Amino acid sequence: MTLSTINITDRDHQIAKLSAIAVALSLVEFFFPSPIPGVKPGIANIIILYTIFKFDLRMGIWVSLIRVFVTSILLGSFLSPTFFLSLSGALFSLLSIIIFRNLSPKYFSLISLSLIASLAHIAGQFIIVRLWIIPHNGIFYLLPIFIVSAFIFGLVNALVTSKLLQLNSKK
Amino acid sequence: MRLNSLLIFILISFLFGCSDNKIHHDKDFIFGTLIDIKIYGESKIHAEKVSNEIFNEFHRLHKLLHPWEQSLITDINNAISKNKSIPINNDEVISILIHAQHLETQTQTLFNPSIGKLIKLWGFHSNDHEQETIPIQEVIQKLVSSNPSMQSIQIKKGVLKSNNKDVQIDLGGYAKGYALDQAKKILTNNNVENALINIGGNILAFGKHGERDWVVGIQNPRKPNVLATITLKPGWAIGTSGDYQRYIMVNNQRYSHLISPKTGYPSNNTQSATVLIPPSKSSGVLSDVFSKPLFIASKENKIKMANLLNIKQFLIIMDNGSILISESLNKKINWEDDIDKKNITIF
Amino acid sequence: MILIKKILQSSKSVKFGDWFVITLFCALIIISAKFLWSLPQGEYLEIYKNNKILATYSLNQEITKEINGTKGKTKIIINNGKVRFSSSPCPKKYCIHQGWINKANQTIVCIPNQISISIVGVKRGYDTINY
């Protein structure tokens, strides 16, 4: 019987590093007060986008999911409604990226992808909220505000990510 | 920079989404009920002026025609009860009384504005319906057999006389409709083209609500919500008599203010009767008056009465909740509640 | 804001398709605001004494209010979207028997005390009620 060993590759190192940064950003964001509950800049998404564009989608998925789980464990909110909100948002935005990733780079940059993913993210969260947390239509009143914030932060995150990519590719 | 203009663009678009402020809305309490006036498409100043003019006119009519507080009508009633004649120096009241006489005949006395004594007996000559007992049968019987009728009133050369001392004029089923017709004149004189006037539920559609016609909701007689909605085309009027409007409760039994002149007792086979009247000079009056015979008549006679009075659009809800509706109204009506369609009979 | 401008200027990578997505997003914002913000938002209560508005209250709360009418004090209860008369100095208490109302244009009137309450909202299909 041979002992199977887990080979830790460079890729794994990369994922670990990126996930750590993403988690750190999530924690920082958590401790920053936001004027409207639920409206967050989602700066960890910068890392996710960066990963997807610098490396590949698979790595991006790993980083995203690790970020969701580890952040919630560290904050003590694992399996709480907040966790499911975060997970749902992440899953929906990843799904949208999978669908739209083949958008021709000639016409679309990562700005589009970021905006789409950002919209999908709040859509995923809204669905959980409507089905489970506040199950009546009163919350739709807040939807326009969330769409605006998704727009703004999707844009900002995209721009920061693209700047990061530029800087890193110059190395 | 592009982001800035984008945001400004978004903000400006929001402003256009705000609701239109072309309606001037005013309310008042007159005729013992809520008056609601909506004027469309006029400047605030002009709409206010016109609303006030209409309210003033309603106050005037309220004082002129009041059935139990001192008015020309109570003066007439006093004279009649003493078998005296009384000169009436008021052409308006004379023509109202003559019109009422005519309508009484037309409705085969189901509309009878001379049964004021019966109405008072049942406690409806007061603003609070505090009556705790039903009147004695013999007293009711006496008033019924003395057969008060508008026909017993004669007006010659401006002098009124009646040969029936039990006649007491009560224009409660006429005045609100008449006020609607008066309001039409005020609107026209002021060049207002679009308005909606609601006097205690009796409604006149003047013009339209901008691009669309006015829409009226019909009260469910038993629940605080709307049974159906109907479009009221320009000039049309709608009136309803209902057992839920004014009534006394004695021993948990409801006695409505709609007294049958034939029995002397409140009519109790109907929850509500609604009529729609096409544009005419007296569409307001008719929308008020004609709902009464449809309410009071026996079930078999309701449809006959509607045909007799040429009412093409009516809706009657019987005491058991079943619905009688005319064919042409059935085509236009939009039911709101979950109405049991099996309970509807179309005529 | 300035940061964004800086980044926008320095990245020449905003492409044609991006503007398409951006415009779509803005359209979505406007449509969702128009649609979702012109419905329940308009619902509040107007209290009239005679023909004057005494007060307006949001229906999204749980409170009891006392209103002074010509005959005495009328109390109304607002409870998350609906309102009713809970006490009134009128003899027959018709206003109380009307129960709860919660839809735009619904009105309850206490004639003896000359108080009426009306729910205001965006048009719910009719301009006035026949009764």
Protein model, in words:
The complex is a heterotrimer of chains A (171), B (347) and C (131). With 171 residues, chain A is mainly alpha-helical. In chain A, 73% of the residues lie in helices and 0% in strands. Chain A has one domain: Arp2/3 complex 21 kDa subunit ARPC3 (Orthogonal Bundle), CATH 1.10.1760.20. Chain A has 6 helices and no strands. The termini of chain A are far apart. Chain B is α+β, with helices and mostly antiparallel strands and 347 residues long. Chain B folds into 2 domains: 40-64 and 173-346, Roll (T-fold), CATH 3.10.520; 69-172, T-fold (Orthogonal Bundle), CATH 1.10.3980. In chain B, the strands form 4 sheets. A 9-stranded mixed β-sheet of chain B has the order 1-2-6-7-10-13-14-15-17. A 3-stranded antiparallel β-sheet of chain B has the order 3-5-4. Chain B has a 3-stranded antiparallel β-sheet with strand order 8-9-16, with no helix packed on it. By secondary structure, chain C is an alpha+beta fold. Chain C is built from 3 helices and 8 strands. Helix content of chain C is 27%, strand content 35%. Classes of the chains: A mainly alpha (171), B alpha+beta (347), C alpha+beta (131). Chains B and C meet through helix 1, strand 1, strand 2, strand 8 and strand 10 of B and helix 1, helix 2, strand 6 and strand 8 of C.
